[in-house]
Amino acid sequence: TLTTWLWGGFSINDPTLTRFFALHFLLPFLIISLSSIHIILLHNEGSNNPLGTNPDIDKIPFHPYHSYKDMLVITVMITTLLIIMSFSPNLFNDPENFSKANPLVTPQHIKPEWYFLFAYGILRSIPNKLGGTLALVMSIIILTTAPFTHTSRIRSMTFRPLTQILFWTLIATFITITWTATKPVEPPFIFISQMASTIYFSFFIINPILGWIENKL
């Protein structure tokens, strides 16, 4: 099964750790590559305005207008990270991380880092292991379908109030799933997580239908 293939066996063991360590090593290079491609395309093709048009007369050079903004944002982010690392390194740490490791005792509530809580919340909302694993993978892959299911004639959401409501509902759902993932696996958090996960996947079905409806308004 898919779970056995991901684990490298019938339980979490050394092959599982090796595979996930390798994944953590390769992902940064993949992200850097995609970011570089994005910057190159932005430099060559330019960015779209809210109306979705792309007139050549309104184009401006990538440097210095965009490059200086990017450098400012990167500087602020790195400075903030260095301040946290230097003066409060345990700000985002969980108290469980300070407990001495004991292979014979499993912590009552295991949870990943905050940036994985969204996927973890969807994973544990489904009791079946294979179903939870598939839902976790699909929660990421389904994001890539958004550009291909865009059915509205207008690219921006500025003049699409219904889509704006749907978008902010998606953001609220994302936050809800992240919040429930920090809670114990017990009612009512199980039900809330399952409902939020259902709403999350429903967004990618409702969004193209809503685009067709808005085209006729």
Task: Explain the overall architecture.
The chain is mainly α and 217 residues long. The chain has three domains: 1-46; 60-92; 108-216, Helix Hairpins. It contains seven helices and no strands. The chain has helices at 2-7, 14-45, 65-87, 117-124, 129-141, 161-181, 189-216. Helix 4 (117-124) packs antiparallel against helix 5 (129-141), helix 4 packs across helix 6 and helix 6 (161-181) packs antiparallel against helix 7. It is globular and about 70 Å long. The mean pLDDT is 85.
Q: Which regions are unreliable across 5 or more consecutive residues at pLDDT < 50?
A: none
The CATH fourth-level homologous superfamily of the largest domain: plastocyanin oxidoreductase
CATH architecture of the largest domain: Orthogonal Bundle
Biggest beta sheet summary: none
Number of helices: 7
Number of strand segments: 0
Number of domains as seen in the coordinates? 3
Mean pLDDT: 85
Kindly state the percentage of residues in helix.
55-70%
